[in-house]
Amino acid sequence: xxxxxxxxxxxxxxxxxxxxxxxxxxxxxxxxxxxxxxxxxxxxxxxxxxxxxxxxxxxxxxxxxxxxxxxxxxxxxxxxxxxxxxxxxxxxxxxxxxxxxxxxxxxxxxxxxxxxxxxxxxxxxxxxxxxxxxxxxxxxxxxxxxxxxxxxxxxxxxxxxxxxxxxxxxxxxxxxxxxxxxxxxxxxxxxxxxxxxxxxxxxxxxxxxxxxxxxxxxxxxxxxxxxxxxxxxxxxxxxxxxxxxxxxxxxxxxxxxxxxxxxxxxxxxxxxxxxxxxxxxxxxxxxxxxxxxxxxxxxxxxxxxxxxxxxxxxxxxxxxxxxxxxxxxxxxxxxxxxxxxxxxxxxxxxxxxxxxxxxxxxxxxxxxxxxxxxxxxxxxxxxxxxxxxxxxxxxxxxxxxxxxxxxxxxxxxxxxxxxxxxxxxxxxxxxxxxxxxxxxxx
Amino acid sequence: xxxxxxxxxxxxxxxxxxxxxxxxxxxxxxxxxxxxxxxxxxxxxxxxxxxxxxxxxxxxxxxxxxxxxxxxxxxxxxxxxxxxxxxxxxxxxxxxxxxxxxxxxxxxxxxxxxxxxxxxxxxxxxxxxxxxxxxxxxxxxxxxxx
Lengths: 442, 146
Fold this sequence. Notes:
Chain A is mostly helical.
């Protein structure tokens, strides 16, 4: 095995072991920042030694033992020679002697540690940006450079964000424990929010040239699937996993040959990923069976499932989708939900109904710069044959999006409205009443 | 990226002999580990080729041959579909699998094609035929009239 092969293999081991390693170390030293430093030290030791010695049979255990030895050094050399540090160092030493870890896997019962680490990485004392970066770094095993590339920001920014986040956690003296009951649900919702943010940044990139960054979707899904095994009793965890699985199932179909977005109505459903759809529907079932009514993620997953079950766009059960959006608007009201509800109602009960709802959102300050508001309005107006207004809305939407692929799609739709408009005038000129004739397509 | 991990058959799988209790437990633990790591998407064991068939093609002609088939080592006895970050990660996971036949066994790792691979190869999926604009127009008309 060449040195670069070994390095790639070490990367792979790191991907698999790092979260468990950091989580177990954090339980021992009660400090996430220190735990990560220790894990990194173990990684550096592996990079130095494995190219010579080969990869050990149980690389996870090797990393853990190395990190523990390092922990003893660090604790003993700590300038604040507190008694508890010495105690801790002695305890780790004793552990290493009685159970050298080299035979067993890190810890088969690492689940609680991982859950604790997830909750801390997404702790509400941290800013959203910090939660995203820390989660990808500590649990996703991504390097600072990988996170920076994914979010199109300089690596130094991410590095600083992570350092600051770890300091904030230390200063806030966040307890390293898994809360119970309602508090757990509250803390989990912060984790779910972070995972969905990561997923969405990958699913419809807010900036840049690519319409999707699939690697981020895969990272979010992987973390979601891990969380579903750690907290199987929580319906919303399965709800989010279901939502992400079903949305990801459309990845292949929602990008055209030139990298441009393809709308749901235009997607070739044969290209949807049926493995992911099946997984998504199973996760939705787990969410439904976990008891109680569906939460916001569960409802969104149920909506996505309606699309997934429809063999063609025409077969979509819009009245059911509209009813699910009604429930969602009750449970988690927001202008964006309201906008989606307008689309669903427009499909179920005609564009005029949808337009009424959209117009009620026109003065909503949080949607002022949201490109999907004029985009949806344009779509409804076009369906009502009000092409001039529709074109203006599509052009406005194009000016608001930061994604270049999406901008092109919106400008195409604006151009199509102009064409339709001139086509209509031709029809009108052909004789009285002609424009009233319903357009049939053959 | 995704990999299809293919377990090759041996005399026992072809004879329909079930694995030992111990192996089943070990395999269950291994699969569970991959589920907990969010890696395993799908997977199944396959029955002996005597319960299967082959369809061979020659021009327009199709010939059906019922199993069993003799070239045991070329047959597949099971598969896993996994989603990982690299081929090395796939290899690392497969190395952790308990020996599936307890004697000699072979597992093959194959990468699944993704959309990006087609784009890289300059093949564009036929999109023109997929435009369903007419269908949409007809439908929105129906909705309007209803």
